Amino acid sequence: MPLLPPPIRVLLSESGKGLTKGKKWLSSSDLSGAAVQASSVFLDLERSTAKACDLIREAGSKGADFIVFPEGFLPGHPTWFHFQPVSSPLSNELNLRLFKNAVRVPGPEVEAIGQAARDAGSYVVLGVCERASGAQGSLFNSQLFFGPDGQYLGKHQKLQPTAGERIVHWGGWGDTLGPFETEYGPVSALVCGENSNPLEIFALTAAGTRLHGMSWPPHFRSAANGTSLMPQTSLLAAQNFALMSKAFVISACGIVHPGYAEDLGISAESAQKIASGAGQGGSAIIGPDTRVLAGPLDGRTEGIIYADLDFDQWARQKIAQDFAGHYNRNDVFQLRINRKPPAGYISEDDPTTTEHFTGAASAEAGQDSGEHETLLTDVNWSPKIGPAK
């Protein structure tokens, strides 16, 4: 198979805040990043979308150029599996509500978020539960990308659902793994535990990401005794990603919504812990040298944190350690990525007929979804230029 460079989703629009046709080198503090820490309006797509739009406009009014939201913000994340049996009546009811309120891409919610991004003049990375095209009962844990002109740029679908997510989420494929090209250089995002996956980190590092968004849920259980270590885990993952990639990292963590304990049928003991804010929040913005530039926010605070990003710091750190360049041994270590999504079915009487349940994610993002693997250790490539669709 031919070896091709990793796909870069390219933005060609000339309208909107700061958009240009070509990349420019940025002087100090030319970009302001923002991490949103907030709760969804639980399993209510319309009201959660309205809340997201308000938060985008608020962050834009304060000068944010790049805004990152928590995981599954539209319409909420399925954390009930931490507390309920997967086949219980309550779990089944919440699963159905999640499905009915999942985001369709394209759809009216995508249009509304795009308009808010345009009003704010900001890039937006938004965590959503996405209903898969062509598969009536399947959902993805996705991040949607928007440009400052309101254009929908594409998406990333979490490759491997974690724990109880596997009951309702389908894993994505390599066709949505990769950065988007902007006037600031390549920018990327991953969902929750993916941000600790060494191969995904290297894939994005080799693709040259300069700015990375992380989306985290409102709560998860991680310790052996059931305690949530999300604030510690998310901060460690953000600093590790910055150390490895030398990118700025905007880590957006969720918090639980009012009425969380009642909606999820949680025991009194667990409800008391959650009410204290324990195991929630932790949103932070990290520099390429792993220093905390903003945050972390505590688990009872809903708000937006901001930091000015000096891209000279990215260059300084890369000069010292470029793990996809001079600080790597390409003759010893190589990574290959399969970017072709699997076929949903192949007709026996017509082997050329296939159906992809991913909803042609590659076409939406202007990516090459041809049958090939990508060698990510070759960093001397030129990005393919083409309009996002």
What is shown here, in short?
The longest helix is centred in the first third of the chain and has 17 residues, at 45-61. The strands form four sheets. A seven-stranded mixed beta sheet has the order 2-9-10-11-12-13-14, covered by helices on one side. Strands 3, 4, 5, 6, 7, 8 and 15 form a seven-stranded mixed beta sheet that branches. The protein has a three-stranded mixed beta sheet with strand order 1-19-16, with no helix packed on it. With 389 residues, the chain is of the alpha/beta class.
Blueprint of the fold:
Elements: E1 3-4, E2 9-10, E3 31-37, H1 45-61, E4 66-68, H2 89-100, H3 108-120, E5 123-131, E6 139-146, E7 152-157, E8 169-170, E9 180-182, E10 185-191, H4 198-206, E11 211-215, H5 230-245, E12 248-252, H6 260-263, H7 268-275, E13 284-286, E14 292-294, E15 303-309, H8 311-320, E16 336-338, E17 345-347, E18 350-355, H9 361-364, E19 373-375
Parallel strand pairs: 1-19, 2-9, 3-4, 4-5, 6-8, 10-11, 11-12
Antiparallel strand pairs: 3-15, 5-6, 6-7, 9-10, 12-13, 13-14, 16-19, 17-18
Helix pairs in contact: 1-3
